[in-house]
Amino acid sequence: MYVGEYRDGFRHGRGVYVFKNGARYNGEWRRGRKYGQGTFWYPDGTRYKGEWKRDARHGFGAYYYTNNDIYEGLWKKDLRHGMGTYLYADTGTKYMGTWMEDCMEGPGQLIHARHRFHGLWKHNLPYGRGCFTFENVCMQHGHYIHVRGPADGDPAWIHADEDIVEVQSPHVNSIIVFFESDKEKLAKGDFSPRMGILPIWRARCITPYNPELLPPEAMPLREEVIIFPQFRVSSIIRSNMRHPSPLN
After folding, report:
1. 3-class SS at 209?
2. pTM
3. One domain, residues 81 and 202
4. Cβ distance 108 to 217 under 8 Å?
């Protein structure tokens, strides 16, 4: 059921649409599609409030989960993509950084009550070099390695007597730790490093707090090439042909 504005037979302007499955959208429409600012209540109890483009979450918006977690940031074609913040309601921990295609990816910070981690993320996991800061008093420098853990996530495997082997992973661009018994499977190429991977911190040193030693901060993603409408590629090529560069 739709209650709102129309134009040329399309839902256009502001309006409310109630779906048969109980979902509801209240916001702006353009030629029959959700476009602009609006709020969508999903059947599972989650809610999105923000920008839309062609029926997809696109632009800046906030998503409220049933466990009270909140994501607030940029979206692209229904996926978290760009700068964004994710709040874990049960612990109060907050991730601030970049996202790519719904995954934490690139520079970011994981903020706890009395300390925070600055570093890089890959496939939702911290990896590589980074540092922990403790109330702007001191810093612990080191790096994360990725370790294959059991499917149930029980970290008891860390105390196993079996030898482990460190290799460079082409899949996650980081160091992966395998058990010695996995070497044969790894050589055959039938071992998936993304299955049951856990990040393990390897501390290197502790120094007084110095902001100049922090890793790079998250930056907006640069994905689109700016095209100036007053210039045409063909005219630029012809101009270069008439006036060749002296370096050629």
Report:
1. coil
2. 0.72
3. yes
4. no
